[in-house]
Fold this protein.
Amino acid sequence: MKKILNLLKNSKVKMVIVLSFLVFLYITICALSYAQNVSADLSNSVFRLHVLANSDSKEDQDLKYKVRDNLLSYMNTICKDCKNKKDAINIVEENKDTFTQIALDTIAQEGYSYDVKISIGNFEFPTKNYGDISFPAGYYDALRVEIGEAKGQNWWCVMFPPLCFVDISSGIVSDESKELLSDELSEEEFALVSDSSDSGIHFKFKLLEFFNQNNLITAKK
């Protein structure tokens, strides 16, 4: 202990400690700023879908997927010509009642009487993979569909760009969807969500995950 105290009294040692702390602080601030900006840009570039099942029973989970499929089919029809997120949200806003009715009709056809609550807002999402595209955890604008008590497992996807329509069996996102996404993001941001083979990009993605998952930053509005 005395040796440590003596070292701390040394002006050179003090300077090294102070400089090391300042370097650490600078790196942390830069990393936080980078993560905040990227998180905000990603959040501002996509519109997502969030479906909550009534419960975790097999029947309710199967119903969730049928509701999802019918909603996506309708979304694909009305938003096929959308060129940006704002257009997609506006169209969904205009047709929210139709989305609600489609969900209710699907539920009734399957022999259930659950109510449905549909809302558009800014919600928290975990890290999710869509084919060969990955989005870090954070807050994103989304169409949220709550079936019945909405206490079951969630299902997430991206409505714009249309990553919901990925061929799940092949795990491949269409080139058209990737092009729409790349138009909305910077070159580095697009690499961040689409290139997991580059070690530098992979590290930045994990950095963004860390800040978001520990609530150090959010893109919440």
The chain has a mean pLDDT of 77.
